[in-house]
Amino acid sequence: MVKESKPTGGLEWRINVPNGTTSKVLVPESKSHFRVWNGLRGLIVGFMSRIWKFFEKAWSLAVREPKKAIHGLKVGMALSLVSLFYYIRPLYNGVGGNAMWAVMTVVVAFEYTVGATLCKCVNRATGTFLAGALGLGVHWIANQSGEKFEPIILQVSVFLFAAAATFSRFIPSIKARFDYGAMIFILTFSLVSVSGYRVDKLFELAHHRLSTIAIGTSLCILTVMLFCPVWAGNELHYLITNNMEKLAASLDGCVVEYFGINANVNAKGEDSDKVLLGYKCVLNSKATEEVMANFARWEPAHGRFNFRHPWNEYLKVGAFLRKCAYCIETLTVSTNSDTEAPHILKKHFSKFCISLSSSSSDVLKELAVIMNTMTKSTKIDLMVHEMNNAVQELQGALKSLSKETIIGDSKNGIEEGNKSSTVVPLMEIVPIVYISTLLIEIAARIEKSVEEVNELANKAEFEQESTKKSKQSQNQQNPNQPSQGNQEDLTMKTLQKV
Amino acid sequence: MVKESKPTGGLEWRINVPNGTTSKVLVPESKSHFRVWNGLRGLIVGFMSRIWKFFEKAWSLAVREPKKAIHGLKVGMALSLVSLFYYIRPLYNGVGGNAMWAVMTVVVAFEYTVGATLCKCVNRATGTFLAGALGLGVHWIANQSGEKFEPIILQVSVFLFAAAATFSRFIPSIKARFDYGAMIFILTFSLVSVSGYRVDKLFELAHHRLSTIAIGTSLCILTVMLFCPVWAGNELHYLITNNMEKLAASLDGCVVEYFGINANVNAKGEDSDKVLLGYKCVLNSKATEEVMANFARWEPAHGRFNFRHPWNEYLKVGAFLRKCAYCIETLTVSTNSDTEAPHILKKHFSKFCISLSSSSSDVLKELAVIMNTMTKSTKIDLMVHEMNNAVQELQGALKSLSKETIIGDSKNGIEEGNKSSTVVPLMEIVPIVYISTLLIEIAARIEKSVEEVNELANKAEFEQESTKKSKQSQNQQNPNQPSQGNQEDLTMKTLQKV
Questions:
Q1: Contacts of B187 in chain A (CB under 8 A)
Q2: Which family does it belong to (chains A, B) (predicted)?
Q3: For residue B422, what are the β-bridge partners?
């Protein structure tokens, strides 16, 4: 039997007993109020805790990437500045209600990176100008052809130009660079040609609108470039460099973990997992890289980058890094699989595999250093050579497998007369052969990345390490001159902090 | 000696002879004009040919994806419709110059897919409403606090709200769904609170603006949904299905090509390359899938999809397909590498590898059929079973390698007393072991994809094949009833055409 609970304010039971009489829990009226209140409180607390969590998330984002919080402040500042056109009488008299367009431009065109802002501003200005001119032209033609035909000509022109411009936004070359411009073209053309039907001083209106947009865009560009600028080029450069380091860490960590030498892994637990899974960021970085490279092209010379810095080469390097990441993904999964190689084989191969993986990741790390310092490395060729040696050693180990351990069909298989050797079934060497071949493949892909980085270094005219050192020593002899090397180091540190 | 050419209107030579006297080619004046004309013509022809190529590209895009051209026409139509607010006197009297906002809404919010349009429209309407209400509130407070403090309060509120809303756009959950809404919030709030300083009938202005935006958004939604609608959900469904087919074709093609049975590949040359490289589309489809799934959530029930169709499951299926693609990428590269396995081994393994790859690709094709018909398949379990059998056969072949061909350290190595067997060095079996293991890994990943598709089929309540068949036979018995099966087939065909 189930006991009826006493109304203690804790759990309450309502029981239907088999004979049909329903047991009732008598609840005083104040109690039911209390229950409603409890439910309400639960809802409110739940809602508040969700909001609290949201703010916590926002706060942690702001702490992790203060640049993003600063971007918010920059937008606020730009809007406050542009709203002065309303508050200060002489400014307002100049532009009047059209100041709205300046505000709108700031809201719409102010982007996170300098390149994106420039791209949007140029697109907005060009699109507005072209469409405005075309709109005035069409308006003039429509005006000449009599009152009856005017709305028809205007309608047809809006239909045709809007359809053509909208479709052009699907063409990849237009989409990549002038997507926003095409939209603004449609917007301005429709507004000018359609509202021209009701507005008399159309030319004045167009002129005012263009000048307020010019005010808005210049304010945007100034704010985004002068206060803590975030350069798309810089971000792309940092992203690629970071990806190299992540791949190196993942590769190293995964091989070391497989061969059970956990002591060498710096981080443990969650952090170690994070390091091992670093390659996942590289797998899906294509879209970001393309957007960044696209915006970087709009940026003027800044920091260590010239105006015509070969941003396209970054995309190629990124593509090769992604290819490495695909292989590392396969490697990670295979090292985590259940089929284990026999201990003796693992021990035998660990030396070669770890040597190859560490020399491979050293090459990746050196590539990251090359990118970071923007200096051609004298060591890289030697390191690639070392990596290739490690590849050959691993291949040698695979070849010599048959010498040291004859592969028979069972562990208790044949023993050759003159050699006493362990016999391991072929199936058991498969994981080792597989992992070794993957490592060799990764090394080959890394070598291609090195070629691509060299190509980038040539096109971007990275300095020679020797030239840099001699400059540094010159600077040490003439301590009064500003040290270029140190400056560069400083820039590098700033970049790393960024 | 170089001969001076006669002025024949063809090639002309100008030679500096060593003693300093310069030989002159006498060109009649008309000729130099001709040359300038030629240069100009070259420039114009080059320019025209570039434009021509651009139009050719656009035309081929329109032919390949007519939906995109239709989208252009739809935008043109919506703009023509909304511009009637200017041309028709009673309509214009109703909204006046605010009709501009309706035009602007159509240009900005009309997107390619229904989901994207709905998302933008809802965001625009909500953002405008919230910001308008808040702006009016702030305006009232500022109004109460005296002429001196009014601009200060307005400025500070614009700064704070704009900064907060801009920053919120970086928070992933906001960015995914309300990015546009946040932008519109900033825009409207700034406009209302700032222009409120100069405009007297602010409430009327806000009301007009909101009503014109409502007109614009409803026009957008009607046009996008009624004329050849493109559903983001449909596109996502088709994308995933298509990716399955592409992976199947790549996997099949690559293995068959490696084992040299080219006769089985349907397409040759460029087309064959295109088929083989189909997996590349899958590698980078993550961003597209996420965007599509995000928009699909906004869409009402349409075609075979309910309102709460489990779009998230598509992302999971997509992720597993991408994992297959990573492996296929590694496989493709390894089958194209220089290190070839010896002919005898290749021949021995071709049977097993092709059997595994074809059963794997069959599973993928069946998954595509499941998705296409939205019917649970009774065959799929059998096919997975077959695939697993093929895996075991391949593993068996690997095991039996040592029985049939003893692996020694050279081709001329030892021969065992009682067995006459070919001796192949271990290094030469490495490629086969590697490719086989990759194939086994791909099969494992495909099996996980099958599980995920089953999960999707359960959540989306796909029909049972048997139920469907019985319904079909019922329909055949009552031929007067509309055939649901046929209808479904028709939808499928339409989908495939799309």
A1: 103-104, 107-108
A2: Belongs to the aromatic acid exporter (TC 2.A.85) family.
A3: B405
pLDDT class of A426 with cuts at 50, 70, 90: low
Residue-wise pLDDT tens digits, B84-106 = 877 777 777 766 667 788 888 89
What residue type is assigned to position A233 of the chain? G
Compute CA distances B491 → A239, B237, B336, B459, B481, whole Å. 45, 13, 40, 21, 18
Å from A254 to nearest chain B CA? 17
Is A80 in Cβ contact with B159 (below 8 Å)?
Answer: yes
Residue B494: pLDDT band (50, 70, 90) is: very low
C-alpha triplet B233, B235, B240: angle, nearest 5°: 95
| Residues 275-294, chain B, touching A (beta carbon < 8 A) | 283-284, 286-287
Looking at CA atoms only, how far is residue B405 from chain A in angstroms?
A: 10
A192 pLDDT above the threshold of 60: yes
Residue range B444-465: mean pLDDT, rounded: 87
In chain B, which among 93-112 make CB contacts under 8 A with chain A? Answer: 97, 99-100, 103-104, 107-108
* Residues linked to residue B376 through DSSP beta bridges, in sequence order: B464
> Please, which pLDDT band fits residue A117 given cuts at 50, 70 and 90?
very high
Query: A427 to chain B, minimum CA–CA distance in Å?
Result: 5
pTM: 0.79
The shortest C-alpha distance from B457 to chain A (Å) reads 27
> Is residue A332 over pLDDT 50?
yes
- pLDDT for the residue numbered A1: 39
Which of these, A71, A66, A212, A195, lies nearest to A139 by C-alpha position? A195
Which amino acid, residue A236?
L
Quote the pLDDT of residue A228: 87
pLDDT tens digits along B37-87:
888 888 999 999 988 988 888 888 888 888 888 999 999 989 888 888 777
